[in-house]
Amino acid sequence: MSFQWLEMRITEEKDRRKRETATLERLPGALEELHQALVVCVESYQKAFAPEAAAVHLHTSKIQVIVRHELDGKWQQSSRVEVLLVPALPGFQVDSGTGGEPRMVHVGLLPGDKLFYRDPVKDQYVTLEDLTRQILDRAFFPKLGE
After folding, report:
1. SS3 at position 144
2. What digits encode the pLDDT tens for the residues 17-28?
């Protein structure tokens, strides 16, 4: 005897597992894409202030952004942001280094191998531009209001 509900749930679970596998395979590439977007932002910041004012580094499973300000003729680190891969999410954890709660960002796949980003706290999708702002705004401009 076969139950229709069971067959439907099996099909749904197979599809879910396939999407999850595809997302996990794409996650390192998603980190690289985010890194490229952050590089563009850091380069703009460097042009506006100085090449020493910021740096971005891509590691195997994280991106690190360092922001510096000149004090008494020396460049000193004023903030640091890390974006870590979290396969269990799947997505990213954004740690601003301020001691506050890290921000989680879900990453998923749309048709055509396109990525989406979702803020689970606000339960809303965000664009890549929104994501770069969430990551960099407080680090770059701590004295400016939201």
Report:
1. coil
2. 998 898 888 999
Specify whether the CB–CB gap between 53 and 69 falls below 8 A. yes
How far apart (Å, rounded) are the C-alpha atoms in residues 138 and 28?
A: 25
Query: What are the strands of the beta sheet with 103-110, ordered from one edge?
Result: 54-58, 62-71, 74-86, 91-95, 103-110, 114-119, 124-126
Element (H, E) at 78: strand 74-86
Rounded Cα–Cα distance for residues 43 and 85 (Å): 23
Two structure tokens written together for 42? 């850091």
Cα–Cα distance for residue pair 136/48, rounded to 1 Å: 15
Coil, strand, or helix at residue 63? strand
Tell me the pLDDT tens digit for each residue of 45-70.
Answer: 999 999 999 999 999 899 999 999 98
Number of helices and strands (H, E) in the chain?
2, 7
Query: Structure tokens of 60?
Result: 């195997």
